[in-house]
Amino acid sequence: PHGKWTDFFTGIEYDGGKTITGYDVSGYKFPVLVREGGIIPIYPESYYDDNRQQQKPRDPLTLDIYPSNNKTQFILLEDDGLTYKFKTESAYNKTLIECDPISHPDAVTITIAGQHEGRGYEGMPGKRNYRLQIHGPEPETVTIGTDMLTEMNEPAELERTEDGWYFDQGRNITYIKVKSQKAKTTFSIIIYRGTY
User: Fold this and answer.
1) Distance CA 196, CA 108 (A)
2) Which residue of 28, 123, 178, 193 has the fewest CB atoms within a 10 Å radius of its CB?
3) Of 161, 164, 136, which is closest to residue 11 (Cα–Cα)?
């Protein structure tokens, strides 16, 4: 379809409205293309036991974001994964994730509203660690909440810090690590760029 599309695995961008030929499908690979404006939440790799219990925590939550020229949003719905209390008792949580490239000139704002809707659920995390992957040009600075992070970290250094960022020039992705936040908190991350 028309629009801008990014290969989820390689980062190669395609213009829509045409047929892609010569796409490598060896080794049972199939195309996974993300439309411009997409927001994809990703939990760490995990598995479930025979009682349907998830064996690894849903932390950190990675948000893979493909900004467009319009505001976009994604609502992450979570519940206990075992009961129907989400239906009978509103025992669920909706986290609203918005990507706004319009409100600030030369910047993209990501807002995360931790408990946008719902009453929460048994086993809901009290705190959450966030990792963001923002596709696009290199930032000049990054602001998390009220903290401006002007200096870019090295990839290995980022893992040792509470919060920070680095830019991968080969893939045009800004990786941002956000220090632990209360799961119900609303906060913003602003990626300042010369032009977008």
Assistant:
1) 8
2) 28
3) 136
The two beta strands, 61-65 and 39-42, are antiparallel
The two structure tokens encoding residue 157: 């250094």
**Cα–Cα distance for residue pair 137/68, rounded to 1 Å:** 12
Residue 70 has which token pair?
Answer: 């319009």
Which one-letter amino acid corresponds to residue 43? Y
Q: How many CA atoms lie within 13 A of 22 on its CB side?
A: 1
Question: 191: which 2 tokens?
Answer: 């990626």
- CA gap 119, 136 in Å, rounded: 36
- In this structure, what token pair is assigned to residue 101? 């490239």
Cβ partners under 8 Å of residue 14, min gap 6: 4, 5, 6, 7, 20, 33
Residue pair 68/91 in contact by the 8 Å Cβ criterion: no
Q: Which two tokens stand for residue 60?
A: 């950190």
Tokens of 58: 């849903």
Residue-wise pLDDT tens digits, 11-34: 889 999 999 888 888 887 888 999
15 pairs with which residues across the strands? 4
To the nearest whole percent, how much of the chain has pLDDT over 70? 92
